[in-house]
Design goal:
Radius of gyration of chain A: 20 Å
Largest sheet of chain A: none
InterPro entries (chains A, B): Homeodomain-like_sf, HTH-type_TetR-like_transc_reg, HTH_TetR, TetR_C_Proteobacteria
Oligomer: homodimer
Distance between the termini of chain A: 38 Å
Organism (chains A, B): Pleomorphomonas diazotrophica
CATH architecture of the largest domain in chain A: Orthogonal Bundle
Strand content of chain A: under 5%
Number of helices of chain A: 10
CATH topology of the largest domain in chain A: Tetracycline Repressor, domain 2
Number of strands of chain A: 0
Pfam family, one (chains A, B): TetR_C_7
Protein name (chains A, B): TetR family transcriptional regulator
Keywords (chains A, B): DNA-binding
Order of helices and strands of chain A: HHHHHHHHHH
Structural class of chain A: mainly alpha
CATH superfamily of the largest domain in chain A: Tetracycline Repressor, domain 2
DNA sequence: TCGGAACCGTACCGTACGGTACATGAGATT
DNA sequence: AATCTCATGTACCGTACGGTACGGTTCCGA
């Protein structure tokens, strides 16, 4: 997407802070202008209108996350399994992040306007990178003979379901984040173990 | 929860229609009074304030759904498996329902106010009945020797994740509902098959 | 028949917010 | 130095909405 100037990035960062701190109602044009020491006129010049600002916040936040490409050398099954577990923990960490939750809440709350334009943006910028990383990992595992599946997307969705379950929606609904972070690795390992039971090398395909 | 009068139920039904049709912005006190042929004063007398109205909508909607208790006679494995598939399809049907999506969007959009009171209501009234039904089904299957698990809650969450994956959040974000309903049974059967791979009789426990 | 309670419809109020206009000032360019 | 560009800050406007007040009507019990 088109980049923003450093000044605009600073304003967007400030907007994200406001959104995280107080929800959508705290993100007013006047309040953002005051908090970011800019003028409302500049906001409208840069982002068009309020919806443009929200969209810019999403793309800006997405531009901050980088998907760590897996290093290709991954000889042992243990390493690969560990990579999957790391992915699972990263995924849960992202979904439980304050900014991610705030932006998802924002997009979901606006899903009835403009044909869910914000929702489409979140799906595109927020989920696609995750899926890309997961697909690369899965296909790497398949190439090395550690995994067995026919449809990469199906396998990815299964992995996602086993990892996330319904915790994302629960967090979106305001439930305090899951266990005190010592629970997270256990859940991640459990999910990966279950995934191997379904798509590990010895498993028979279900499709 | 305390019941409402028939008149109040009719007003709440009308409010749900407004919410489904136009999102939260379409649900104004004046608009509801006009649509339901009642006065704003009555709305405030009955429900206190706007938040009370939203909470009443959630409890009212929850009061409409009944969890069909499984008939205890379930001799064959095929019957039990079919019951699980029916549960899966029912679950997806509920989550994809217009009213459910609208109320979840509403609660998620307000998750930053009042300590996510609406979100807590949705979690309590919307998800607890589902889990209750699923737990009964799972434990029935375990009693009959068809399933093997130690923690019912864990097994339920696994089942939920395999069935729903991330489709709920995607729908909340405005993605049109999944395949043209002929895809749903296939997905349900696949999820159940995967669940049996993890917790079927012959499976070794992972925990 | 009277009186009160509940309710409808409408008018009203205060406020908050999105969006626009304008005056001022700082930096760069010619 | 003159000027152009860009941004700030403030003031302003229209509107929409939550919440309240009030007059009028219906219904029910005494």
């Amino acid at each position: 997407m088109e980049p923003f100037t450093p000044r605009q990035n600073a304003v967007l960062e400030c907007a994200l802070q406001l959104l995280v701190a107080g929800g959508e109602r705290a993100l007013t044009t006047a309040g953002l202008a005051r908090a970011a020491n800019c003028s409302k006129e500049s906001l409208y010049k840069w982002f068009g209108d309020r919806d443009g600002l929200l969209a810019a916040m999403i793309t800006y936040q997405a531009s901050k996350v980088r998907t760590p490409g897996p290093r290709e050398s991954m000889p042992t099954l243990e390493d690969f399994s560990r990579s999957l577990a790391v992915f699972a923990e990263d995924l849960m960490g992202v979904l439980a992040g304050e900014v991610s939750l705030a932006l998802n809440r924002l997009a979901i709350g606006q899903a009835d306007r403009d044909g869910a334009r914000l929702g489409a943006l979140v799906r595109e910028h927020g989920r696609l990178p995750i899926e890309t990383r997961a697909r690369a990992l899965l296909e790497l595992g398949r190439r090395h003979g550690y995994l067995k599946f026919s449809d990469t997307h199906e396998a990815y969705e299964t992995l996602y379901g086993l990892i996330v379950r319904d915790s994302h929606v629960r967090m979106l609904l305001g439930e305090p984040p899951v266990g005190t972070s010592d629970d997270l690795p256990r859940r991640a390992r459990l999910a990966i173990a279950q995934f191997f039971r379904l798509h590990g090398h010895g498993a028979q395909d279900i499709d």
